[in-house]
């Protein structure tokens, strides 16, 4: 018999296929990220299409995307049947903006790693120029030059 997205899988099969622990699955279920039903003997049974949700949770965790953001996105998906391609397209659009912001933050970090990040350490040559006497502390705590794009030096429009 061929597998299909509406197959029912035991928690053991879900654990084997995803590598996620039973306690993590319970946690995701409590958070409303995944759903199960009760089968014979009160055993928890999952639809096969939950594998995709669990896999996306794993990836989101690796990317440090908060589970609350994942939950917001998953809340728009049907729980009683496998989401369609169109459903996932909608999810993808919702997620794209967040991922773009993350990409920009990573690019900024990559770019600024050898420069002054405005953290108050004054340990780089560039700090003398970009954060003399830690003047950037007036803009708030943390590496303000990484956090706020407005703190980035602006290029002069005159040549
Ligand atoms: S890198 Fe820390 S203040 Fe410049």
TrEMBL record:
InterPro entries: DNA-bd_dom_put_sf (IPR009061), MerR-type_HTH_dom (IPR000551), MerR_fam (IPR047057), Redox-sen_tscrpt-act_SoxR (IPR010211), Tscrpt_reg_MerR_DNA-bd (IPR015358)
Record GO biological process: response to oxidative stress
GO molecular function, one term: DNA-binding transcription factor activity
Pfam (any one): MerR
Matches recorded under Gene3D superfamilies: 1.10.1660.10
Keywords: 2Fe-2S, DNA-binding, Iron, Iron-sulfur, Metal-binding, Transcription, Transcription regulation
Region (Disordered): 138-159
UniProt feature, compositional bias: Polar residues: 146-159
Mitochondrion in keyword set: no
Protein name: Redox-sensitive transcriptional activator SoxR
Organism (species): Nonomuraea phyllanthi
